[in-house]
Write a structure and sequence with these properties.
oxidoreductase; seven-stranded antiparallel beta sheet; oxidoreductase activity, acting on paired donors, with incorporation or reduction of molecular oxygen; Naphthalene 1,2-dioxygenase Alpha Subunit, Chain A, domain 1; 8 helices; single chain; alpha+beta; metal-binding; iron ion binding; globular; 2 iron, 2 sulfur cluster binding
Length: 433
């Protein structure tokens, strides 16, 4: 189900200035030098001007995952989303969700400086300019003012969409047109989990000292998964491999994975759940990969034994042994949906060498902490995995900063990394053309 969202195009803010011809030419040259199957040249991970181009060409033009409805469950609830030079307010209303630039139209102060909260009207803390939930300026009194036209100073708006309980935002005047098609692909996979009827059990923000592309590259492969001992208890470390490239020490795991996959497909067929892989990471503007895959052990959740971490099933699911629904969306998000909880991940670039990674654990709305789940146990596997990934990303950033760095080859199991980089280079070529 898609909620109504206010997104009046005429009131949207202008994006950051386009690159100069000289800057665009430099980016085009680097893109043209990119060798297929290899990582990017160092400036793509280290240069502030390329980061600025990324903010314009990627984060200023494409749909981004911002939050879930579980984070803003009632009208008046909001979250602020910051990335690069932008700050957005994602505000729940009676009709849906509004997305507003968090920039007062008086002198540019942040209207809502907090990460999350509840509000009626939006009141800037500097001079008390007051806006409605739609962003209209409704109060800006000042002694001596007689001809001030408040209608000219509404908060600037961005596009917002809600699909299957997830909120997406886009700053472009004309967002990518294929988002409706992509929503049609992933909504049937996510709908049974009823994210809109879940609640937040925990949220973690980590700042990784690495470029946002390194964060996404790290996420798109499991070649490094030997470095995730907690995750390896439930996630098959053969993820990303195919028959013929499985190393000898993982053959037993591969066979166990095949058996678990056959059993999972039988259960999905019984319950009418989609499970086939849809992989269009670099063949469309809004790149996606989604599938339902088995978990190791008991096959129920991300725990040391694979057993469930919450006693409450999500939505209308009827079985804990449904593995994980895994979704990747370009450019900034990935998701794991299990029968007992959902984990959302979003990467928000801060600058060319820092990225905020926000992880949110969602449980059934009637699940009671301390009774149905323990928050430390629920979050343990991915808290540890996130810290390990932070270390891996920072190792790569340190390497990219070195004069000795040169692009290296992606392995066969890293084909999704190549797909991400191919998607990125296509979009950036369009931007600087």
């Amino acid at each position: 189900m898609t909620l109504a969202v206010n997104s009046r195009a005429a009131s949207r803010g202008r994006l950051a200035a386009a690159p100069t011809e000289e800057q665009a030419a430099q980016v085009r040259l680097l893109l043209d030098e990119r060798r297929t199957g290899y990582s990017l040249e160092a400036p793509f991970y280290t240069d502030p001007e390329i980061f600025a181009a990324d903010m314009q060409g990627i984060f200023g033009r494409h749909w981004l995952f911002a939050a879930s409805l579980a984070e803003i469950p009632e009208p008046g609830d909001y979250v602020t989303v910051d990335y690069g030079p932008y700050s957005l307010i994602v505000l729940r209303t009676d009709e849906g969700v509004n997305v507003l630039h968090n920039v007062c139209r008086h002198r540019g102060a942040r209207v809502l400086p907090e990460k999350t909260g509840t509000t009626g009207n939006l009141v800037c803390g500097y001079h008390s300019w007051t806006y409605s939930a739609d962003g209209d300026l409704i109060h800006a009194s000042s002694p001596g003012e007689t001809s001030f036209d408040k209608a000219c100073f509404a908060l600037k708006k961005a596009h917002g969409r809600v699909v299957a309980g997830l909120v997406f935002i886009c700053l472009a005047d004309e967002p990518p047109a294929d988002f409706d098609e992509v929503a049609g692909i992933f909504e049937p996979y996510l709908a049974p989990h009823e994210i809109a009827n879940s609640r937040v059990a925990y949220q973690q923000d980590i700042i990784e000292e690495g470029n946002w592309k390194l964060v996404m590259e790290n996420n798109r492969e499991c070649y490094h998964c030997d470095g995730h001992p907690e995750l390896a208890c439930s996630l098959f470390p053969t993820w990303g491999l195919s028959e013929g490239i499985v190393p000898p020490h993982l053959e037993d795991v591969w066979n166990r994975n095949v058996e678990a996959e056959d059993a999972l497909r039988g259960r999905c067929t019984r319950y009418g759940l989609p499970f086939e892989i849809v992989e269009e990471l670099d063949t469309r503007v809004t790149g996606i990969r989604i599938s339902r895959e088995p978990l190791d052990g008991a096959g129920e959740s991300f725990s040391a034994t694979g057993r469930r971490l919450s006693k409450k099933l999500l939505g209308d699911l009827r079985d804990f042994r449904l593995g994980r629904c895994s979704m990747h969306l370009q450019p900034n998000s990935w998701f794991h949906l299990i029968s007992d909880h959902v984990i959302t991940f979003a990467a928000f670039p801060i600058n060319e060498h820092q990225t905020l990674v926000r992880t949110t654990w969602l449980v059934a709305d009637d699940a009671v902490e301390g009774v149905d789940y323990d928050v430390d146990t629920l979050t343990h596997t991915w808290k540890q995995t996130n810290l390990q990934d932070k270390n891996f990303v920072e190792m790569c950033q340190q390497g990219a900063n070195s004069p000795a760095y040169e692009p290296g080859p992606y392995m066969k199991s890293e084909y999704q990394v190549e797909a991400f980089i191919n998607w990125y280079t296509q979009r950036m070529r369009e931007h600087v053309a």
